[in-house]
Design goal:
Blueprint lengths: L2 H8 L1 H4 L12 H18 L7 H11 L11 H35 L12 H15 L8 H22 L4 H26 L2 H11 L8 H20 L1 H6 L4 H6 L4 H23 L5 H13 L3 H25 L8 H22 L2
Helix pairs in contact: 3-5, 3-15, 4-5, 5-10, 5-13, 5-14, 5-15, 6-7, 6-8, 6-13, 7-8, 7-13, 10-13, 14-15, 14-16
């Protein structure tokens, strides 16, 4: 048995489905890319303004210099596509891809099927940082909500690393330290909101805490895309190492893996990516928890295949979830995190049921 085959076998614990039942069609990545492109093109057309796919392509071509004008598209529709819908849809794709990749990496790295991008307390720290800026005016106007959220996420992750290192640095200690940090920063957020915020501010903060892509802009898209590309490249570079972690840390060490260094690198990369995404869109749950299980059940646990397909599936999923969130109760908007939870809970129960069937 080769090391790759061994990793497949060891990955049964993560997905609960026999390796023989898994398929590996080579067309899946191409189908995922095509589905993402079609999803973005169609999602931008959904909304109160009547905009077609041809209008979307005309606007994009004009802004990219492929055309001198946007054709018959009016300046108003041009602004709706380029300044409102397109950056929001692309940011949804970036956030979905990043959260799914982080979930897949952390579930393997920590050997915990319930691990997700927020297990390191990053989301709670970001929420506290955002609340301090919005409610208490920390930063004196020089610090934006996204900046405050990012700094809060970094502080939370630093606390988790400090606690886990002082407790021995094992994977279990990392998870426990993350839970402790999550509870601490959640309590701080609740305390600040309940004691210092008025009703209107509380409503706005709550909407952001539940996940919102309404304030998406091109800077958020470029920043998120750049960090996602670097993080995905680093994780793919450690794909074989992540496969080795399926055997456990001791077995990975005997295979030549520098366990402590690898774990630190991947934890830092996933925490940084999560911090950037949460700072841009708030806390969007269940994407990083459910999708890695679904993709792993289809392709197997090999990370060279798993991570790219997680990114594509997460991107497509969140594009359509955001489209549903902004249109289902139009003109009101539902927080994206609420919709992902409503969809994610039944999906996760189904994954658990499938796991139980094969055990």
């Amino acid at each position: 048995m080769t090391s790759a085959e061994g990793a497949e076998t060891a990955g049964r614990a993560a997905s609960g489905i026999p390796v023989a039942r898994r398929v590996r069609p080579v067309w899946l990545p191409a189908a995922g890319i095509a589905a993402l492109c079609v999803s973005v093109a169609l999602a931008v057309t959904v909304g109160p303004a009547d905009i077609g796919v041809a209008d979307v392509w005309s606007v994009i071509a004009a802004h990219l210099g492929a055309g001198t004008t946007a054709g018959d598209v009016s300046p108003l529709r041009d602004g709706i596509v380029w300044d409102l819908r397109l950056p929001r849809t692309l940011l949804a794709a970036v956030c979905g891809a990043g959260l799914a990749v982080c979930g897949a990496v952390l579930q393997s790295l920590l050997r915990n099927p319930l691990a997700d991008p927020f297990v390191l307390g990053v989301s709670s720290g970001a929420s506290t940082g955002a609340v301090l800026v919005v409610v208490l005016g920390v930063g004196g106007g020089a610090l934006s909500v996204s900046g405050g959220a990012f700094l809060g996420a970094v502080c939370s992750f630093a606390l988790v690393m400090l606690l886990s290192h002082s407790l021995g640095g094992s994977t279990d200690r990392v998870v426990l330290a993350g839970v402790a940090a999550m509870q601490l920063f959640s309590a701080l957020t609740s305390f600040v909101v309940m004691t210092a915020a008025d009703a209107e501010t509380t409503r706005g903060v709550l909407f952001w805490l539940l996940g919102s892509l309404g304030g998406a802009g091109w800077p958020d898209v470029w920043t998120g895309t750049a960090v996602l590309a670097v993080a995905l490249a680093v994780c793919l570079g450690h794909a074989r190492t992540l496969d080795a972690f399926a055997f456990g840390q001791d077995a990975a060490a005997t295979l030549g893996v520098h366990v402590a260094r690898t774990r630190l690198v991947l934890l830092c990369v996933t925490a940084l990516l999560t911090a950037v995404l949460v700072a841009s869109a708030g806390a969007i749950g269940f994407v990083g928890l459910v999708l890695p299980h679904a993709v792993r059940a289809l392709t197997g646990p090999g990370h060279a295949r798993l991570l790219p397909l997680c990114a594509l599936s997460g991107a497509v999923f969140l594009v359509w979830v955001d489209t549903l969130a902004r249109t289902v109760l139009e003109p009101k908007e539902v927080p994206v995190g609420v919709v992902t939870s409503l969809i994610g809970v039944p999906a996760f129960v189904l994954v658990l049921y499938r796991t139980r069937r094969y055990r």
